[in-house]
């Protein structure tokens, strides 16, 4: 069946956009992994983090583990990059809008809330991704609100650093397969989780939750928004735009409990990240770890001075990475009879004019360390490498010739 689909794609290419199907099973020279942890950080270029005195742990970690010095985000904003990491495509989404929840639409009980405008229909069938070139003119729609949001002046080609947008030219739209690495893992009998910090307490559910501060969310009773008769805002620490899996219809519906919203859990609590790491036996094959917006270097004002400015956001994020990495290193899954790896990666450079280059660190409990790779990689390379680690077929742009398995960073 796969061969027939591939033949159809080849014969149809001249008349229609390229048809994306699952390609060949990916195999790396580094061998398979039992456990892979991907930690996602936010909104800083590589030059802003490694070597920054406010990020001492990460700077040392990049030197002692393995570091990709020529690693690129694909585009902007956050959600598209998260989708591209886990699915090899932006799936036609172009912004950080919330999803239309299958079990309840899109709700915001905040008296001043208006975020449901433009909410995305959950991804289900195949469709066209959103194509974009490597270098763009910020005056040309739709790029004007992507490159320089709210800018009073246009940035024309000669003033724009080449490849601000992407390492490679992805301007040709491609038909995508509506799947992620999570779907592939479940199909092959393995488990996954996304650990998302600051989910609403006490339930920890994510159904219908667009943002939360660890206690309250957009679904909280309107009385939660009142202090002394005045309306207040819930600090948006957990952000649904950083949880790409929930944008898929079948995961929202949860017919298969292993491919459902139940696979989103918090950092703390009896079934959270740190409890799973301590037990070891409940750690899934693939862990997608997302600190909240006060701990991922994004920065979240409106109630928390510790992450309201860039300096403090980097300091807090550095401490958060250290806590997670040290917990993984202390876990039974880091023992030598498992093959385990950690990836720390940033989503994008937050619209900075200049190359959209970000940091990526790879740490393994086997093989070489202290490797610095100058090979050109981007988020689709990471997708392909994760698939190689679990011998999964490539998805969407992870099948591109430019999407290379990062063998040098995961080497034996």
Structure notes:
The protein contains 9 helices and 17 strands. The protein has 412 residues and is an alpha/beta fold. Helices cover 20% and strands 13% of the residues. The chain has an 8-stranded mixed beta sheet with strand order 12-7-13-2-14-15-3-16. The chain has a 3-stranded mixed beta sheet with strand order 1-6-5. Strands 4-17 form a two-stranded parallel ribbon. The longest helix has 20 residues, at 310-329. Mean pLDDT is 86; it is low at 1-19 and 137-161. The chain has a single domain (2-132, 170-399), classed as Alkaline Phosphatase, subunit A, CATH 3.40.720.10.
Q: Quick gist of this model?
A:
The chain is built from nine helices and 17 strands. It has helices spanning 2-12, 56-64, 78-87, 144-147, 181-187, 249-253, 273-279, 310-329, 379-389; strands at residues 18-19, 35-41, 66-68, 71-72, 127-128, 174-176, 192-196, 211-212, 226-227, 230-231, 238-239, 264-265, 286-290, 340-346, 360-364, 372-373, 377-378.
Beta-strand segment tally? 17
- Look at the structure and name the CATH superfamily: Alkaline Phosphatase, subunit A
Order of helices and strands: HEEHEEHEHEHEEEEEHEHEHEEEEH
Q: Give the neighbour order of strands across the main sheet.
A: 12-7-13-2-14-15-3-16
- Which structural class matches the secondary elements? alpha/beta
What is the fold-level CATH name, i.e. the topology?
Alkaline Phosphatase, subunit A
CATH architecture assignment:
3-Layer(aba) Sandwich
As a percent range, the share of helical residues equals 10-25%
Low-confidence stretches: 1-19, 137-161
In whole angstroms, the N-to-C terminal distance is 35 Å
Sheet with most strands = 8 strands, mixed
Count the DSSP helices: 9
């Amino acid at each position: 069946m796969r061969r027939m689909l591939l033949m159809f794609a080849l014969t149809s290419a001249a008349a229609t956009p390229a048809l994306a199907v699952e390609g060949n099973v990916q195999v790396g020279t580094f061998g398979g992994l039992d456990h892979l942890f991907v930690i996602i950080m936010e909104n800083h270029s590589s030059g802003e983090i490694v070597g920054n005195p406010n990020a001492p742990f990460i700077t040392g970690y990049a030197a002692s583990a393995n570091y990709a010095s020529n690693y690129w985000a694909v585009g902007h904003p956050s959600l598209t990059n998260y989708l591209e990491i886990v699915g090899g495509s932006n799936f036609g989404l172009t912004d950080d809008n919330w999803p239309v929840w299958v079990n309840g639409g899109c709700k915001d009980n905040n008296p001043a809330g208006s975020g449901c405008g433009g909410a995305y229909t959950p991804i289900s069938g195949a469709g066209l991704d959103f194509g974009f070139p490597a270098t763009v003119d910020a005056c040309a729609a739709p790029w004007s609100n992507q490159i320089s949001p709210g800018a009073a002046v246009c940035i024309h080609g000669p003033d724009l650093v080449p490849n601000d947008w992407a390492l490679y030219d992805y301007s040709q739209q491609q038909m995508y397969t509506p799947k992620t690495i999570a779907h592939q893992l479940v199909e092959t009998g393995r488990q996954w989780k996304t650990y998302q910090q600051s989910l609403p307490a006490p339930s920890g559910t994510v159904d219908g939750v667009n943002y939360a501060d660890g206690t309250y969310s957009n679904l909280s009773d309107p009385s939660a928004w009142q202090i002394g008769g005045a309306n207040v805002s819930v600090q948006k620490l957990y952000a649904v735009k950083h949880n790409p899996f929930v944008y898929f219809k079948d995961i929202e519906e949860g017919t298969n409990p292993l491919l459902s919203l139940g696979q989103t859990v918090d950092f703390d609590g009896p079934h959270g990240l740190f409890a799973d790491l301590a037990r070891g036996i409940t750690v899934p094959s693939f862990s997608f770890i997302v600190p909240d917006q006060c701990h991922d270097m994004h920065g979240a004002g409106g109630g928390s001075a510790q992450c309201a400015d860039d300096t403090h956001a980097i300091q807090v994020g550095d401490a958060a990475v250290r806590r997670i990495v040290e917990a993984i290193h202390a876990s039974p899954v880091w023992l030598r009879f498992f093959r385990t790896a950690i990836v720390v990666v940033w989503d994008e450079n937050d619209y900075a004019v200049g190359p959209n280059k970000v940091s990526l660190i790879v740490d393994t409990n086997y093989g070489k360390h202290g490797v610095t790779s100058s090979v050109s990689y981007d988020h689709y390379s990471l997708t392909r490498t994760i698939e190689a680690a679990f011998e999964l077929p490539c998805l969407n742009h992870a099948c591109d010739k430019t999407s290379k398995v990062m063998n040098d960073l995961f080497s034996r």
